[in-house]
């Protein structure tokens, strides 16, 4: 994985993504300006990230070997040290290179490496004014923003569908028997409500408010009947029956 850095005054990478018939992505590297090249020519240390995302983008050992080969070809192997480095915290923009502490992203291929190191004196800044005029852009392009909006819309639909779905609770008699076999000693509705408020109920098939749920179905027979043998309102013990 790798941290990507775009130089505030001198952008390195201009990535344009198009859908042309089948999905085709082309990356065009904007050369570093002459002033940046002069600065980077005096570089002493180049670091290459070898973590997962950068490896997947073609970085890691392969990119390190490429930089080494170019540095040696230019006769700068004694002047520039190429090393690996840890993830810098911004993933998904690799392969990435750290040149004397400056983080540069999307370094792809020989020419991009030369530009990142400031070794490509002959490179000219591309003219992008007419870029893309002759491309067939008839394919549907769903950019990142549109995808995020669509994703939120689908999530909202799923949420509404979930909220409108009916709960799957046990039939009243099955629920009542399950509660009475639970081993708890709820004396009153207040005991039950306090128990629910503490988050102790683990069975999703038992309603938290059985009086309301089974009441709407016309099946509710009172807390004493639901909880089993409990104290009646006057405090005397009352034995529940299944009538």
From TrEMBL:
CDD domains: TRX_Fd_family. It comes from the Eukaryota. Residues 1-26 form the signal peptide. The keyword Signal applies. InterPro entries: Thioredoxin-like_sf. Keywords: Signal. This is Uncharacterized protein. It comes from Phaeodactylum tricornutum (strain CCAP 1055/1).
